[in-house]
Specification:
It contains no helices and eleven strands. The strands form two sheets. Strands 2, 4, 5, 6, 9, 10 and 11 form a seven-stranded mixed sheet that branches. A four-stranded antiparallel sheet has the order 1-3-8-7, with no helix packed on it. Strand 4 and strand 5 form a beta hairpin.
Length: about 130
């Protein structure tokens, strides 16, 4: 098990950029597949981006492809989400999730993850 702590969320204008961080504590982070999910008020949690243990493979939701980039630094036990060209519809609580994963892939379903952070609020104003 790892503990995950997100940071970096804030209010930003449409078209702006943010970088979210997810710091992991208490485990060998290089063995964990990691993903970002988001949940807007009144909506279900949705997949945003995922990255495999080594960082060599990534996956994105169609709604963020080309605008968001997920990356990781296993030496720093941290995963990042660089968000560019932000839109008001990106407003949500963003949470990172991790799971010890034998295969060097990254699941995109929230039910695949058993370690979650508390979330960080991202608000994009128009």
């Amino acid at each position: 098990q790892v503990q995950l702590v997100e940071s970096g969320g804030r209010l930003v204008q449409a078209g702006g950029s943010l970088r979210l961080s997810c710091a992991a504590f208490g485990g060998t982070f290089g063995y964990y597949a990691t993903a970002w999910f988001r949940q807007a008020p009144g909506k279900e949690r949705e997949f945003v981006a995922a990255i495999n243990r080594s960082g060599g493979s990534t996956d994105y939701a169609d709604s963020v492809k080309g605008r968001f980039t997920i990356s990781r630094d296993n030496a720093q036990n941290t995963v990042y989400l660089q968000m560019n060209s932000l839109k008001p519809e990106d407003t949500a609580v963003y949470s990172c999730a991790a799971r010890w994963w034998v295969v060097n892939t990254a699941p995109t379903s929230p039910s695949s993850y058993n370690n979650w952070g508390q979330g960080t609020q991202v608000t994009v104003s128009s």
